[in-house]
Design goal:
Strand order of the largest sheet: 1-2
CATH class of the largest domain: Mainly Alpha
CATH topology of the largest domain: Helix Hairpins
Structural class: mainly alpha
Radius of gyration: 32 Å
Strand content: under 5%
Number of helices: 15
Order of helices and strands: HHHHHHHEEHHEHHEHHHH
Largest sheet: 2 strands, antiparallel
Shape: flat
CATH architecture of the largest domain: Orthogonal Bundle
């Protein structure tokens, strides 16, 4: 008599309401993924154009083409990053909706369970004699009792499953939030890329203004640059965590590291410059704050040991703030080595520089450490692909091949090309 009603009640509560249209969400995501794939293909195409043009002899057309490709590539990279962030935010929203629905379902299941318990209590209050006198069929009584108990167990199981699903979904949200933080910080770092776009646009306009689009005039500009070797030598090479040094001194340190490792000097300069740019963008941190997470214990201990050996006050030594690549900041000096990595390389650095103990904040030690790590990452092979791969490993280790980090490798190679040109000018004047 009550059995059918309770089955209907149970089934009405186990259905999870849908507040979003899964089909529409899937279609939108597919559109964004398709757009992202197209952007990455275009970015790769511009990367190949830049590399190909850099192998050609200097000319107005070549250099304008390189500038155009660099500008368009950087713009597409920023657009691609925005799409990735939008996808992650969308996923976080969906997962949050799922959690809300799970909570609502759990409340409905509890209400259903309460109703079942009330019915069971009513049955418990009814004796067998009363049931028989009342004319109820005894077999139907027990059948209904069994059905209610079965449904009760089903609701208990459903609530347990809801709890498990909720915990899993919340973990997924945490992972997505971490990815969002990573992508957002990468997007923040691309403010640097935006500035470079503006610089390249200005450079392109100035170049066309000076030369009026004529190759002969451009060749005159190139010759004028070559006569300006003294200016190149004296210009400051910016460093993180250490006083800036003249470009000529930076070249000297890079050449010394090259002699010991075989890693191209201009490439070393590109790495140090990119790390300094990123270090400045991330900002200066403090070890007590940026190595405070429980997962940073080894980094914190290594940092204290490094500063102690050098007789330095750890509170006064600049380190990077926690960035997108993990729970810990603490990267030190021009080469931006994290403490445990510095500990791995410090003996080799001391052997080559003669500084014992070496300091991550000393430019000579930093350049040597950077070259040693780049050598281990395969940079001494000397090809464009090998150097770019080594740069990406310098940043991201085993995750070097993630498209999110591609801008770093491209930036380093562009800087290396710039410094190679400047070094060639200096050498031509000797």
């Amino acid at each position: 008599m009550y059995k059918l009603g309770f089955f209907v009640l149970f089934l009405s509560f186990v259905v999870l309401a849908q507040t979003v249209n899964p089909s529409a969400v899937g279609e939108r995501r597919a559109e964004l993924e398709k757009e992202l794939s197209s952007l990455e293909e275009q970015i790769s195409g511009f990367r190949e154009v830049i590399f190909g043009k850099q192998q050609e002899a200097a000319s107005l057309e070549r250099d304008i083409n390189i500038l155009d490709a660099q500008i368009k590539k950087a713009q597409l990279e920023i657009k691609a990053r925005d799409i990735v962030i939008k996808n992650i935010v969308s996923s976080i929203g969906e997962k949050s909706d799922e959690v809300d629905e799970l909570l609502a379902k759990a409340e409905r299941e509890k209400a259903s369970l309460s109703e079942l318990l009330r019915r069971l209590n009513d049955l418990d209050q009814t004796s067998l004699i009363e049931t028989l006198i009342g004319g109820d069929d005894l077999s139907s009584f027990f059948t209904e009792l069994d059905s209610i108990e079965s449904i009760q167990q089903s609701i208990h199981d459903s609530i347990s499953l809801i709890r498990e699903t909720k915990l899993t979904t919340e973990t997924e949200i945490d992972d997505l939030e971490a990815k969002k933080a990573e992508e957002t910080q990468l997007r923040g770092l691309q403010v640097l890329e935006k500035r470079r776009i503006e610089e390249r646009e200005a450079e392109k306009k100035n170049l066309l203004k000076i030369t009026k689009g004529q190759e002969a005039e451009y060749q005159k500009v190139l010759k004028a640059k070559q006569k300006d070797a003294a200016t190149i030598r004296s210009q400051l090479f910016l460093l993180t965590g250490s006083p800036d040094i003249p470009f000529e001194r930076a070249v000297e340190l890079a050449n010394k590291a090259f002699q010991k490792t075989g890693v191209r000097p201009a490439f070393i300069l590109g790495i140090i410059a990119e790390e300094s740019n990123l270090g400045a963008n991330v900002g200066t941190g403090n070890w007590r704050v940026d190595l405070s997470h429980s997962r940073c214990t080894k980094q914190r201990e290594a940092f204290v040991q490094i500063t102690s050996e050098l007789g330095l006050n750890p509170d006064l030594m600049p380190v990077s703030k926690k960035a997108w690549y993990g729970y810990c900041g603490g990267a030190m000096g021009p080469a931006q080595f994290i403490p445990t990595t510095w500990q791995l390389y410090k003996n080799s650095v001391a052997k080559h520089t003669g500084h014992n103990p070496p300091s991550p904040w000393d430019p000579e030690d930093a350049f040597m450490a950077s070259a040693l790590l780049l050598k281990d990452n395969g940079a001494a092979e000397g090809t464009y692909a090998a150097e770019r791969r080594a740069a990406l490993r310098y940043l991201a280790g085993s995750n070097w091949n993630k498209s999110a980090y591609a801008f770093y490798g491209d930036d380093v190679m562009a800087l290396a090309a710039k410094y190679q040109e400047q070094m060639n000018i200096i050498l031509a004047q000797r």
